[in-house]
Design brief:
Number of helices: 17
Oligomer: single chain
Radius of gyration: 24 Å
Helix content: 40-55%
Strand order of the largest sheet: 1-6-5
Order of helices and strands: EEHEHHHEHHHHHEHEHHHHHHH
Bound molecules: tryptophan
Number of strands: 6
Largest sheet: 3 strands, mixed
Length: 376
């Protein structure tokens, strides 16, 4: 993609943190990744991942906030595999990427609970993306877990003490909550967390093929990274464009036109785009030509992506191995964070004191013995 700029929210007090900067981001395992994911977050992941220690979460616990049927959960393995393959296909180097399954790091749930005292319900109720998610999922009332979605996301981010979080527009407000929670924890107890920087792409949100503000699987208006050339062409030729333009001789509007938004994001021939825009404004080009050239440009972008995808997919053991080793690595990291948090909060001391004052009673059965330290 051309002219991508990096925007980092300045951090007044970065707090303590690991020496190596860490990145954490990821997705819910609900399906394949699409062009909207690419411009919002994937492009930044690819560009930055070698400069950071990079963690990529398969956020199946987040998925439960709107999709929690047995079927949804049974699909996690397949969807996670597709997502990891999509990530490798766009250019993440498996040697520089730690992929992990959120539900297999149960300490994240403990962190979520400890952080939930540091944020209020009205603060969460003001976040528009949560209402949108509830509506898109057909929920009449806000599920408790969905209101807590940004807190769980803060738990993921802080669990690995991430310093940078590349996300699309929908997730920006959630990262803001994570930053607030980190500062609050550091102030109330002691500095444990770096305040993570939000990193967003310069096309924070790509419209859907139907002209709606965002591309989304649930809205059925997405072009997937794995879509084959004919499928891409079919979707592009049916794209929403300037509705006021009734024929090729009528001057059209380029600004806010999703066809041109896609050209700007994916066409690697800027002179071609400028020429089309000029002729479009003058009423000297048909929609069909503009769309044919867009389909060709997207397919030029996707061809190497799909070639890499096929190569990674041919190695069947690769994704399971990446997820298992990545999850084990992440879990060790997160266990250290929980210990730091409990220590900073004084929770460790509380139980230690009880233990010190407890009368020594004979343990009736070694099998029933419960030693909290064994779980740390
Ligand atoms: N909320 C992200 C999504 O829209 C997924 C996610 C979960 C995430 N935890 C995260 C993203 C932590 C960045 C950082 O699917």
């Amino acid at each position: 993609m051309s002219g991508q700029t990096l925007t980092i929210t300045p951090t007044a007090n970065p707090g303590p943190g690991p020496v190596a900067p860490r990145m954490l981001t990821g997705d819910r395992p609900t399906g394949r990744l699409h062009l909207g994911h690419y411009v919002g977050s994937l492009a930044n992941r690819v560009r930055l991942h070698k400069r950071y220690e990079s963690f990529f979460i398969v956020a199946d616990l987040h998925m439960l906030t709107t999709k929690n049927s047995g079927q949804d959960i049974a699909a996690v393995r397949r969807n996670a595999t597709e997502m990891v393959l999509d990530s490798l296909a766009v250019g993440l180097d498996p040697a520089h990427s730690v992929f992990f399954l959120q539900s297999a790091v149960p300490e994240v749930a403990e962190i979520n609970l400890l952080l939930s005292s540091l944020v209020t319900v009205p603060r969460l109720e003001r976040i528009p993306s949560l209402k949108e998610m509830a509506r898109d999922a057909g929920k009449k009332e806000m599920p408790f877990a969905l209101l807590g979605y940004p807190v769980l996301q803060a738990a993921d981010i802080l669990a690995v003490k991430a310093t940078a979080v590349p996300v699309g527009r929908d997730n920006a407000a959630h990262v803001e909550v994570a930053r607030e929670i980190a500062r609050r924890f550091n102030r109330r107890y002691r500095p444990v967390f770096p305040v993570p920087a939000l990193i967003h792409g310069d096309v924070p949100s790509l419209p859907g093929t139907d002209g709606q503000a965002k591309m989304s699987k649930s809205l059925g208006n997405a072009i997937y990274l794995a879509d084959q050339p004919e499928e891409v062409r079919r979707k592009v030729m049916r794209m929403y464009t300037d509705p006021a333009r009734t024929g090729p001789g009528v001057p059209g509007t380029v600004e806010g036109n999703p066809v041109f938004a896609y050209h700007a994001a994916f066409n690697d021939r800027p002179a071609e785009v400028a020429g089309l825009a000029e002729r479009y404004r003058a009423g000297k080009v048909g929609d069909a030509e503009v769309k044919e050239k867009l389909a060709a440009a997207i397919n030029r972008f996707l061809a190497p992506v799909q070639e890499r995808r096929a190569a990674f997919a041919a190695d069947e053991g690769l994704v399971p191995e990446l997820i298992v080793t990545g999850t084990e690595r992440t879990r060790r990291e997160v266990q250290r964070t929980v210990a730091d948090m409990r220590d900073a909060m004084g929770l460790t001391a509380a139980f230690t004191e009880f233990r010190r004052h407890a009368r020594l009673v004979p343990v009736p059965n070694v099998g029933d013995q419960c030693d909290v330290d064994q779980h740390r």
